[in-house]
């Protein structure tokens, strides 16, 4: 297949970055790099510096120069100046601005408290210059049930935003519900959505199978089976609005196996095998290339990759743990066997 891209990836920083970056570079040619570091990546200068650290980590991991391109993002705050958007656009390396509703997920404390109340000038410039808004689509209202937060976000945030800025490019990140699928499929204007491998493969039963399983805990949380089936139908449909975003989010084992464990699933190492498994489960391997390699670049206004990636139908065991700096990370589906594996190093 045409070499794929990952349109939603957490690479972290420092020694963790060096542990994980090779896993993505082995499969993907490019990735949208999420900005939720501590402190977050809020300026173009921060994004350029972070990009340099990623390029250094790639070189240290033996990835040939140019074989993997990090597409940088800014973390939107209540105070992001409109001018920062112009600088970001002019840099040529920033490809989106990420909305974290304050308190919605890992490292979202600096996120936005009132999107249309506080960010109008900034959103207007994004709309003008075509820089997409990448949205974590969950409300944080404690009165809204955790499993309903995406559906409520559509009414309370997404629809008012898109009525006010109808030409703003929007990516509904890590879509998890049938309501989200219906909205993205039918809405007018420039909208798309990323879908993770774990939301295609698992429903919320996975969190409780035989006991409490923290390595299946991510945000937005896994939903009911009917939502998983809606996501699978969307990903394998002929709509160009749905594309691959792993949301691979490494946390050291100890940060997940504790009294208040972090959200995030580590899927980068086996990402394409996981997606191939999901697509094959509904007999739609023929749609994998559009989802993984064509729809994303078309939405972002970038060319598709020229290289290829080959998967082969040979079972591969997922290790029970992988090294992560001086600790370890438990990958999704640890200890299980996947029917697909990478056949060879991708071509450039
Ligand atoms: C992500 C992380 O750990 O940074 N966690 C997650 O569960 N997906 C943050 C995010 O994308 O929400
Ligand atoms: Zn994420």
Question: Gist?
Answer:
The protein is of the alpha/beta class. It contains 12 helices and 14 strands.
Secondary-structure-based class equals alpha/beta
What is the architecture at the second tier of CATH?
Alpha-Beta Barrel
Q: How would you sum up the global shape?
A: globular
> Which fold name is given in CATH as the topology?
TIM Barrel
Cα end-to-end separation = 13 Å
What is the β-strand count?
14
User: What are the segments in which pLDDT stays under 50 over at least 5 consecutive residues?
Assistant: none
N to C succession of SSEs = EHEHEHEHHEHEHEHHEHHHEEEEEE
Please tell me about this protein's structure:
This protein has 348 residues and is α/β, with parallel strands linked by helices. It has one domain (6-306): TIM Barrel (Alpha-Beta Barrel). It is 35% helix and 14% strand. Helix 1 (14-25) crosses helix 2, helix 3 packs parallel to helix 5 (120-129) and helix 7 (178-186) packs parallel to helix 9. The chain is globular. Zinc ion binds at residues 8, 10, 34, 247, 249.
